[in-house]
Structures are given as structure tokens and as C-alpha cells.
Automatic annotation (TrEMBL):
Source superkingdom: Bacteria
Keywords: Cell membrane, Membrane, Transmembrane, Transmembrane helix
Record organism: Bradyrhizobium canariense
Record's keyword annotation contains Transmembrane: yes
Entry annotated with the keyword Membrane: yes
Pfam families named in the record: DoxX (PF07681)
Membrane topology: Multi-pass membrane protein
Protein name as catalogued: Putative oxidoreductase
Length: 154
């Protein structure tokens, strides 16, 4: 019975992570992210910056509440795959690259694609296994089943 709750922490961490990245881009100024995309040669960088920010924030919020997860997972997965192939792949798998420890603290290198793969795995688990308890998707499914049952009885 406790396994029934497994999707909840996945939803919370994936949703929060996406929202945090989207809000960080927004708070730093979308023009900064647009400039980064332009430097990478992404076509229509202004539009792509806003699509990415919206995907991260809106998709993240939908995942947190477990709403339409199979639908919002598609653009979220695309954002992750683009990040893997345009940014992280060249740095290898590991997301933590300790370069040195100095008196001022630890210094790390560029992260690899490990974290992106973890996000993809969590999203896949939510799509395959469902959004779990306390989710809008679960509520919609129960409501749909209730209407379907009434149609069969009536």
C-alpha cells in the first residue's frame, strides 16, 4: 500500500526542479538566456527562450499537482534532451566534477548529463505508472470512472 505513494515525491522534486530552473531564467532576465541560446546557434533564440521558460514553469507546476502529466511531459522531455545534446553531453555523464578544494571552498567543473537523465527517468515513471495520490490526474480519472459507471447503470 505504501508503494501507492511513490509518485508523490517524484512529482514534487521534478516539478520543483523545473520551476526553479524556469524562475531562475526569468529572474536573471530572459534576455540573458536568449543571449546564451543565440551564442549556441539556436534558431529564433528569443522565442525558444520564452518557450523553454514557460515549459519549465508551467510544466513544473502541472507536475507538482499531478495535472495532465502525460501531456506536459512531452515538452519537458524535449527541453531535457536539447540540454543533453547541446550543453551537457560534451562534459560526460557525471553531474559532479570536483576540480579542487581551496581555502575558499570546493570548485566544480561543468556538469554532465546525469541529472537530465534522472529527470527523464522520473518523468517516464510518472507517465507509465501514473501521477499517484493527491493528483489532479487521479481526481480526473475517478470522476471519469464515476460518470462511466452511471452511464452503464442508467
Amino acid at each position: 500500500m505504501i508503494a501507492h505513494w511513490a509518485p508523490l515525491p517524484l512529482r514534487l522534486i521534478v516539478g520543483y526542479g523545473f520551476c526553479a530552473h524556469g524562475f531562475a531564467k526569468l529572474l536573471r532576465g530572459p534576455d540573458n538566456f536568449t543571449g546564451l541560446l543565440h551564442a549556441m546557434g539556436v534558431p529564433m533564440p528569443y522565442l525558444m527562450a520564452w518557450i523553454t521558460i514557460a515549459t519549465e514553469i508551467v510544466g513544473g507546476m502541472f507536475v507538482i499537482v499531478g495535472a495532465l502529466v502525460p501531456i506536459v511531459s512531452v515538452p519537458m522531455a524535449i527541453v531535457l534532451l536539447v540540454a543533453i545534446f547541446t550543453v551537457h553531453l560534451q562534459y560526460g555523464f557525471s553531474s559532479i566534477k570536483l576540480l579542487e578544494i581551496t581555502p575558499s571552498g570546493a570548485h566544480f567543473g561543468q556538469p554532465g548529463y546525469e541529472t537530465d537523465l534522472l529527470y527523464l527517468a522520473c518523468i517516464a515513471a510518472l507517465v507509465i505508472g501514473g501521477s499517484g495520490p493527491l493528483s489532479v490526474d487521479g481526481w480526473l480519472l475517478r470522476r471519469s470512472n464515476a460518470f462511466t459507471s452511471k452511464d452503464r447503470v442508467g
